[in-house]
Amino acid sequence: MVRVVHTDAGHRGTVSNNAHIDIYPDGGSKAPSCLTKCIPYIYDLIPWDDCNHSRVEYLTSIDYQKFGVCQPVAYECENYASFLRGKCGNYENNSFQSYAFDFQLSSLLPVPVTEDVSKKNRQFYVKTSAEAPFCVHHYQIRLKSREHLVCNSLRISLLSKNYRVSVKVAKTDQTSMTALLTLDWKTLNNPVRFVSAIISNCASNCSNQIDLVLVDYMSNINKGSANTSHFEIIDKYLN
């Protein structure tokens, strides 16, 4: 089983997925901690390359057991744009997820889920934060309707006991919408358990078409972890 982590794709590194599993943190380049290294119109200069190229050393040297339940779990997806739209998650089964940097994690953590050496050229994506431990809480948001949706996107608010966040969701097929919500570990030490959702009636023409909102916490490979809810169903309603 060969895994490759791409942090400088298209510069000193390669974009090509030639391994069994190719993992692209932040799409494979332009890491959050490197965005301010150079001004935009000279981002191809060496300091930028050095930052992204050496990023993998920092990502793979963290012991994630020391940082609660947040883990760098990457998900298989056709491309980074689809991943950012929330189209790829683990709600159906766990064969599409893998520890992003599992070869450096503590041996006490579960082994990676994906170990099928017969499959190659599989692309996995995960977002990271600028500072150690580089972990970002990922949530896949899914909206379901029994009718054909008449709008392409809308904005919803997700609420927990002490937290509220607004998310734009986009249409993925005739009856579904998705989004990826990411929250930095510095903002929230533990994952939020969302308990309700609000969609304003004036948000779009299809606000009343939504029958179900589902939120799936993606940043822990262990379904039984404390303070997590691997699969949350948030009831309608919405006004």
From TrEMBL:
Coiled coil: none annotated. Transmembrane segments: none annotated. Residues 2-134 form the Lipase domain. It comes from the Eukaryota. One of its GO terms (cellular component) is extracellular space. Pfam families: Lipase. GO terms for biological process: lipid catabolic process. Signal peptide: none annotated. The keyword Secreted applies. Belongs to the AB hydrolase superfamily. Lipase family. This is Triacylglycerol lipase: pancreatic-like protein. It comes from Leptotrombidium deliense.
